[in-house]
Amino acid sequence: MASIKVFGHATTTSTRRVLLTLHEKNLDYELVNVELKDGEHKKEPFLSRNPFGQVPAFEDGDLKLFESRAITQYIAHRYEDQGTNLLPADSKNIAQYATMSIGMEVEAHQFDPAASKLAWEQLFKHIYGLTTDQAVVAEQEAKLAKVLDVYEARLKEFKYLAGETFTLTDLHHIPVIQYLLGTPTKKLFTERPRVNEWVAEITKRPASQKILQ
Amino acid sequence: MITILQSQLLPPPPIKLRHSSLLFSPSQHSRPNLKFTSKSSPSPPTITMASIKVHGVPMSTATMRVLAALYEKDLEFELIPVDMRAGAHKQEPFLSLNPFGQIPALQDGDLTLFESRAITEYIADEYSEKGEKLMCPGCNKVKALTKVWLNVEGQQFDPIASKIAFERIFKGMFGMTTDPAAVQELEGKLVRVLDIYEARLSKSEFLACDCFTLADLHHLPVIHYLMGTDSKALFESRPKVCEWVKKITARPAWAKVVDLQKQ
Fold this sequence. Notes:
The complex is a heterodimer of chains A (213) and B (263).
Chain A: E1 4-8, H1 13-24, E2 30-33, H2 46-49, E3 57-60, E4 63-66, H3 68-78, H4 94-127, H5 134-157, H6 168-171, H7 174-180, H8 186-190, H9 193-204, H10 206-210
Parallel strand pairs in A: 1-2
Antiparallel strand pairs in A: 1-3, 3-4
Helix pairs in contact in A: 1-3, 4-5, 4-7, 5-9
Chain B: H1 2-9, E1 23-25, E2 33-36, E3 52-56, H2 61-72, E4 77-81, H3 94-97, E5 105-108, E6 111-114, H4 116-126, H5 140-173, H6 180-201, H7 214-217, H8 220-226, H9 232-236, H10 239-249, H11 252-262
Parallel strand pairs in B: 3-4
Antiparallel strand pairs in B: 1-2, 2-4, 3-5, 5-6
Enzyme class (chain B): transferase
GO molecular function (chain B): glutathione transferase activity
Domain GST N-terminal (chain B): 50-131
């Protein structure tokens, strides 16, 4: 019995964010499927795990968490000495940590809102028999392009977003980028050379491949 | 997006000097830098350079978030106004501080930061021994729960609450009209979040644990604005939420942030 349990759905970007982290850390875990199409996430007993009714929820022993980015940070700290280091090289250096935090905030507040909407419009809507709204796609692509311009400049100076090493900041982007690479939005990544290289690097990692299976 | 719109539309704050603790220092900006000390000082003013500089305006919720943390920690800082109306935040030299063109940015010595919630976390960590505690001391479990509620504020509360503040307050400042249908829809979403807060605060004195943390602090600016509108009913009608709002807005550090707006 793994002491780590993830309650979620292996196709959602937020669940994948957590699974990626567990794979990077070589941690054993149990994925308990939450059947989204049955609305399981909006009912008990799931609501006791996350009152906001969203996957994933997480358990490590008697610690219960939700919000994927809180979970990944917990894993990165708690299992710091195991597997890939997902924190800055000197994790006790507060200034370095702050730089990683900026990147995590940017992903959550600048990148993800636009990227998630694009994945929804172009991919997930089809699952529900809904049609893509091209006006929304155009609007969100314009926003995402501005963010990626900043990333391009940043990645000219550094190998990864928070510095020279792969960190949670980069990891948080992977699940939605993987989806967007299967849509016309892919061009926003491929037409920016450093962003394109960075995307190739982070998506070819063994852990990134594992979550696609 | 809302923060950008707020920051684009606000006029630059008037700078009135009434307190002996306010000092001028020469600056390359067209506006003088205001040095704020967190305690009023009876000694004669001296020209010193605070190592912490905040680039922002007191009306911006994101700037207020950072100011609250600085006051909680009793830290000296300089508030350098950014001329939003002139679009200073979308040009150099501000873009070198935050390439996303949003206030606030913070400098501490040679460290430059942006994103208000990364800044407050830095302040809480770097100055953990000073002033009020902003993270629950102790084990990984408590820290992990704090991160949960920090994410809740950023991902669940703020996107909705900021839009309501924009509709009810900031639109009016610029001759745009509040959209009542939008407000109604947003409030319908906010009440679901506040019901969850009500349940949480029935089990815990503050959101993350039994002490005040950044998870509570981050809510202050938007709650402050909403409590000046009809939306306040949503908070006041939920007893635990109401009590929590009263507690966090009564903090002396918060009073100083609100005071800055009046200057």
